[in-house]
Amino acid sequence: MKIQFYGAAQRVTGSKHLITTQKGTKILLDCGLFQGINTSELNLHFGFDAKEIDILVLSHGHIDHTGLVPRLVKKGFRGQIYSTHATKDLCDIMLYDSAYIQEKDLKRVNERRQKRREPLLELLYGEEDVRNALALFKTVDYRTPFYLEEGVKAEFYDAGHLLGSAGIYLTFEETERTKTLFFTGDVGRPNDKILRSPEAFPQADYIISESTYGDRLHEPEIDMKAHLLKIVHDTCVVRRGKLIIPAFAVDRTQELVYALDQLESEGRLPRIQVYVDSPLAVKATMAMKENEESFNPDILEYIKHDGDAFDFDNLHYISEVNQSKALNSYKEPCIIISASGMAEAGRIKHHIANNVENPNNTILLVGYCSPESLGAVLKGRPEHVKIFGELHKLNAKVEVMDSFSAHADYAELITYLGCQDASKVKSLFLVHGELPTQLAFKNRLLLAGFKNILIPAQGEGFDL
């Protein structure tokens, strides 16, 4: 049996791990889009032949884990795609949104390239490819074993990171002996505001673990709502400005809305307009409401009394482009939540471009941003930022709230992996992290008793 790493190898995006079984069956774990600067070639070319992939198993619906599924189908994949029910629901909306954004962005890029007489770029995939991909999905419940082929069994375990997110536990009944492998996907945090905590998984011979926050601890957040309210008050009441929040359309947006809903219910939220400006976030919120079985007991109790955790007076969900553009000329204090979370694409880039030079405004970053992204640049608080090719002076205040992160920090990851007898884990592969972060996490894992810890490079393969 062999495993090769074609994405999220010493970087955070593009999750893609290929297992070749003893029989020669090729099982791909995730098929994510690379995000950030200088990633177009990585998205155009997988590093393997899509036609040779037999089975695809998805950990969760984030685009850096599913965003190249339609391209895989476009390039000849015809196998079964396995996921949880909620992951399929999210892919149903997120992949169409991804196709739309790519078509729109490529048109703009190719217009510029044509003027410079440069070769035009290829479209990764369109809506037809998304439809063809969704037709291949087969959904499975958590903790329900299913066979990928004779002798290869799989099972999903709740990862607590995103609606429907799962760790993937594989059992290979090979000739000499049975082997087991667990892929964490992305691991959520215990006591998430909406989702259940990550659950333990059976003993594994091999583990592929994410390491996004492997070198840091999240700052203790004594009262997350109070922190958010303080930023809202400072921006919208004291400075009479706009609070611009880049947020992933799924989970992060709903967590923000839930916090604001609670503040409004408690009578503490200022009487200002709140806009969720993202067609994807609107659809994702509906999907969240339809999958309440994934919610933790606290939010279910809140819904029982409040009626709806994602709706309150002065909250507006925006889908139409003209409504989004109208926010540019809106002069009153307000909150605008828009995708993407890394501020790399979508309407949020326009909102930042239109508001970044006003010192009365605040840009609030509430999650991980890959180093090449606009969100990461803003975190560094430079004097100027480049958006859509134009330099803007950064006069707006920049705030960061790590308490909204959906990724476990290193202590939480080690606690999560604590369900394992470390002495029985033959190899632990670190993925989905920047190399310096992974090296720091490796040292902590060694102290926790894990022995053979490997940090694969892009395209690197290992015999198991």
From TrEMBL:
Record key words, sorted: Hydrolase
InterPro entries: Beta_Casp, MBL, Metallo-B-lactamas, RibonucZ/Hydroxyglut_hydro, RMMBL
Domain (Metallo-beta-lactamase) ranges: 13-227
Pfam annotation, one family: Lactamase_B_6
One MF annotation (Gene Ontology) recorded for this entry: hydrolase activity
Entry keyword annotation includes Hydrolase: yes
Residue span(s) of domain Beta-Casp: 253-378
CDD domains: TTHA0252-CPSF-like_MBL-fold (cd16295)
Protein name in UniProt: MBL fold metallo-hydrolase
